[in-house]
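Good morning,

Both structures are done.
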Amino acid sequence: MDKTDALDAFAALGQPTRLDAFRLLVRAGNGGMLAGQVSKALKVRQNTMSANLSILTQSGLIRNQREGRSIRYFADMDGMRGLLAFLMEDCCGGRPELCQAVIDEIACA
């Protein structure tokens, strides 16, 4: 991930509804969620949610899959991994052991 991509991701996450949607999709895991489910869970109108999901998709933080007339959304773990790697690229001045606490915090138990 380069600086421009990271800035796009941060801009996408810099809006409360999009941040909530991203976190919801991370919690949903591999099963993802239908757009209507995301909208209902966050109590956001479907057309508004659609616009927000589109921005998150363009930022590379989520992906989608068409299922008939519906669209299922998933957190894009590669996109999230890329953003985290960009943030930690120069972590701890070449002493990776100093970054271990951060890595432990974000790793799934």
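Second structure follows.
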Amino acid sequence: MMELLTEAPFYYNNFSDATDRNESDYTDYSMDHDKLQQSLNIMSVIVYSLAFILGVLGNGVVIWVTGFKMKKTVNTVWFLNLAVADFLFTAFLPMSVTYTAMGFHWPFGKFMCKLNSTMSLFNMFASVYILVVISVDRYVSVVWPVWAQNHRSVCKASCVSTGVWILALILSAPYFIFKDTGPAYHNENIINCFNNYAFSDDYDSPAINELRVFRHKAMTITRFMLGFVVPFSVIVSCYTVIIHHLSRSRTLASQSSRSFKIIAAVITTFFLCWAPYHIMSLIELVVHTDDNASDTLRHVITYGAPITTSLAFLNSCMNPLLYVFMGQDFKDKVRKSILNVLENAFQEEVSRSYTYTNSMVTSRSNNKSVSDSEV
């Protein structure tokens, strides 16, 4: 599950970077605050459920088509791996739905808290670095087309994809380590899934609190740099050069326009969905490491965290929609594949009966011919 931000009061879910569980965080809020928070929680449940349904079905179709119905190419390898990353993430979303619907009570145990939370960051790192690989691949294909034609292969693309998965696993592993479960301060019957950066329930010791703050900063900044700034700097650089080359060659531009638009749409969607999340994580870091942080920033986290997290969730179900609306080849394959499945499902008995009858007639005809020839 996603690492949603917030140690903010009353919003304590298993995506949170929350480490501070002091009584001072649980202040009284107005009825308007409670109603708004409840509305945001309901919105989160609806969005998570929608992302689960569309994500599992949509990415499942992409995996089916790119993995089994389309000719294996370098591009299909990239999009297959991107779909697998999104599918794995959305498959865990029912736990997020349950956790939010139960008032942020985690009933699935510590291991699933760790695994569920890690999957969101694993998906984020895998997705963004697959997009980096796609961008570099497009850059090489446009700038050095002869070299690309001689060296690009499905086998090499598969090896690069494996490297991306390993890198994503390494970068997301710390989130598995730091995730923990424990009773909520305001209600011991509610079990929270949260980040325990100090591996301790001691919030009074200055040394432990310093360690907690240091690790919180290190994790947030590392995630922001390696999960957003660095990969998107590479992506923007690649596409800047690509656009420059395409503008100089109309023929090349017309040949690359469709695939270029699809990839650009996928990258833009990823940026729009994940940028608010990373910005919110930085705001949260300021609030939870600065005792003088304003109440305005605290309210921004309380109300903004569920919105930005829901937006990031939706990214995992957006790509299949982009392929369908923008990719004619993919659209044709999906339509033909679904029609074939439906034809086989609805005409199976008729076909079997027809085939059996034909075989019997053919068999009798052959026997009769043999008998006549013997006579």
